Amino acid sequence: MIETTPYSKFSSVYDEVMDHVDFQEWANFIIGSWKENKLPDKILDLGCGSGTLLSHFPSSINTKVGIDSSLQMLETAKKKYPKIQYIQGDIIYFSLKEKFPLVVSTHDTLNYILQPEKLITHFQTVNKNMELGGYYFFDLSSEYNLIHNFHKKQLFYNIDSVKLTWRNTYNQKRKVITSTLIFSIFKDLKIQKYRETHYQKFHPHSIILKILQKTGFSLVSIGSDYKTWTLKKDCCLINYLAKKIKEIK
Ligand SMILES: C[S@@+](CC[C@H](N)C(=O)[O-])C[C@H]1O[C@@H](n2cnc3c(N)ncnc32)[C@H](O)[C@@H]1O
């Protein structure tokens, strides 16, 4: 078994595994929450993965930029949507030449940031790369989702020459979910096995509110699963819309 970094193998089947996600609905929900008269001219997607969400935003948005740490996810994205600009980087620390009126981060990407101090740094970084009055739309997995849909659950996929087994354990004390993804890849009459271990943390709403306040944002709306701007107890992805109200140093 070869240990490999998150998304280095997952990238080869990510789109098929996420086939149930209606990214057009997500893009419509985000754009529908846009509070200004004129649509933004630029959008930045943090943890853009294979670029699908960015591709669903209106083509009138001239500049679409995605940042992701996984080279393999970005390779997939570049093949599918070559007109989008991609940057390999860490969403906790980055500095771009231009500032964005709309920044998004979706599909529990921020749950990959484990330490609260790093989450603070992330929001400070986002602030510095945004226009004053701009919006940051992000989601976070709810604890309900981690407990009811993932804890002690195994998922199996057979996609082309790849067999994926995905096991999850949520530690309620540490608020961390460990996902072990085993890939059996059939090539040249041989099977090669790879393991990716993903760690994600549940961040309670009270912490997010404090961090937003500390990093120059005000919370505009909170919603559920890209469907409604009300918070439901059994929602899986909590949607946040925050406005940059202050420049920070
Ligand atoms: C669950 S996927 C979400 C991808 C995409 N946003 C979507 O909606 O399908 C999480 C992505 O975040 C990226 N990621 C996680 N932590 C990151 C970090 N610190 N910096 C940059 N990318 C990160 C991963 O490489 C992966 O592509």
Describe the protein's architecture and organization:
The chain has 2 domains: 17-141 and 204-244, Rossmann fold; 145-201, S-adenosyl-L-methionine-dependent methyltransferases (N-terminal domain of TfIIb). It is 24% helix and 37% strand. It has helices at 14-17, 23-32, 52-55, 71-80, 116-128, 143-150, 205-214; strands at residues 2-4, 42-46, 63-68, 85-88, 100-105, 130-141, 154-159, 162-171, 176-187, 190-201, 217-224, 237-244. Strand 2 (42-46), helix 3 and strand 3 (63-68) form a beta-alpha-beta unit. The N and C termini lie far apart (46 Å). The model has no long low-confidence stretch (mean pLDDT 96). The structure holds S-adenosylmethionine (SAM). The site of S-adenosylmethionine has 18 residues, from loops. S-adenosylmethionine (SAM) is lined by residues 7, 18, 47-49, 53, 68-70, 73, 90-92, 106-109, 112.
